[in-house]
Specification:
It is a single chain. This protein is 20% helix and 33% strand. With 155 residues, the protein is of the alpha+beta class. The strands form three sheets. It has a four-stranded antiparallel beta sheet with strand order 2-3-4-9, with no helix packed on it. Strand 5 and strand 6 form a beta hairpin. The longest helix has 31 residues. The protein starts with a helix and ends in a 10-residue tail after the last strand. The C terminus is likely disordered. The structure holds FE2/S2 (inorganic) cluster (FES). The site of FE2/S2 (inorganic) cluster has 11 residues, from loops.
Length: 155
Amino acid sequence: MVRLSLLAGAIPAAIVSVPIFSALLGPLLQRQKQEWRKVANLADIAVGETKLITYVNADPLPWAGVTAKSAAWLRRESENKLIAFSAHCSHLGCPVRWEDKAQLFMCPCHGGVYYKDGTVAAGPPPKPLTKIEVRVNKTDVEIRTAPVPITTTTQ
Ligand code: FES
């Protein structure tokens, strides 16, 4: 009877603990998953140009649909040097836009401003735009996709 009572208590406890452990460990497991993805042809980006690109996250959930897509800013500094930034402001995660004439990234939410290298120029952002690794693979531009931190509390 005691064993039966223990078993009757253990089964619901195990069922309840699965989502709790998944929620606790999920972000840690997600951060480890990274993948190189093609986002552009090198010939399609002129030197000095900054382009908005979209890509699928490294580890999308099967039911994510369009929410699996993320965006980044890709900038060609020279013939062989490209840099990419998360399109999310480092303050509270709003999408930043590129102002070509001013050569600045602007955040519409609270007035955050970033220089073209992603460093903070003005406003409340506590740190630069998150950089994303970029490489050129023959004629393809690839970025290393990973879950993108969109607020300062996740790091
Ligand atoms: S979210 Fe960009 S400045 Fe606040």
